[in-house]
Amino acid sequence: MQEEDKSIFLQAMQDVTPLNSSNKPPVHNTVKQKQSQTELLRQLKKRNSTQHKTNASYKELQLDMGKPIAKVTAFQALLYYKKGMRLQEVTKLKKGDFHIQHSLDLHGLTVEQAEKKMIDFLSHAYYEKLRYIRIIHGKGYNSKEEYPALKNLVNLILRQTKSVIGFASTPEKDGGTGAVNVFLKAQ
C-alpha cells in the first residue's frame, strides 16, 4: 500500500472504534469436546440403566445411545427430525406455528437436575398425549464449559428419545436459539 493510500485509509478510520475482542466466539478444542461428550453419554447410560423401567411411558422414552452427536454453540440453531416426518410439520416446528401445550424452563439448573426434569417432563407430556411442547434451555452464557451445557444436554436427550419425532430452535420472538419446540409422536 502506498503512503498516500495509507494516510487516506487512516483518515477515514479515525472515528472507528475497534470491536471488543471478548465478543469473539471461543476456539473449540475437538479433543476436549469428544471427551466431554463421551463422559456425558457414559453418565446418561449409567443413569438410564439404573432407573425403574416398568412404566410404559418411560419405556417409550428410552434413550438410543448408539449415535454420536456433535456439540452445539450458543448461537447455533437446532433442527432435527426423524425420517418420514412431513415437510409441513417441519416448517410448523421451525416457525412455531402451533399452540404450545406445555413448556419446561431449565434456567439455573445443573446438568443432573435438568436431565431428571427433562425425562420427567417428556414422560409426563407423552403420558398426557401432548404433541407440541417447548423446552427453554438458555444460551449458556454462564456455562463453565466452552459449550452451553444445558443446550447440549437438551440436544442430546431429544435426539435419542424415541417418542420425539422432531425439534427445532424457536423463532427469535420466542427465545431463538435459547429454546426448542418439540413435536412428540402420537400414542
How would you characterize this protein structure?
The chain is of the alpha+beta class. The chain has helices at 3-12, 30-50, 56-60, 87-95, 111-127, 149-160; strands at residues 79-81, 102-105, 132-136, 164-169, 179-184. β2 (102-105), α5 and β3 (132-136) form a beta-alpha-beta unit. α5 (111-127) packs parallel to α6 (149-160). The chain is elongated.
Task: List descriptors.
6 helices, alpha+beta, 187 residues, 40% helix, 13% strand, five-stranded mixed beta sheet, elongated
Q: Please tally the helical runs, counting DSSP H or I stretches of 4 or more residues.
A: 6
How far apart are the first and last residues' alpha carbons, in Å? 69 Å
Rounded mean pLDDT score: 82
Query: In sequence order, what are the helices and strands, one letter per element?
Result: HHHEHEHEHEE
**What ranges have pLDDT less than 50 throughout 5 or more consecutive residues?**
52-60
Strand order of the largest sheet: 1-4-5-3-2
The proportion of strand residues reads 5-15%
- Please give the radius of gyration in angstroms: 21 Å
* Morphology: elongated
What's the count of strands?
A: 5
Return the structural class.
alpha+beta
What is the makeup of the main sheet?
A: 5 strands, mixed
Q: What level of helicity do the residues show?
A: 25-40%
Question: Nutshell version of this structure?
Answer:
Helices cover 40% and strands 13% of the residues.
How do the helices and strands line up, and which of them pair or pack?
Blueprint lengths: L2 H10 L17 H21 L5 H5 L18 E3 L5 H9 L6 E4 L5 H17 L4 E5 L12 H12 L3 E6 L9 E6 L3
Parallel strand pairs: 2-3
Antiparallel strand pairs: 1-4, 3-5, 4-5
Helix pairs in contact: 5-6
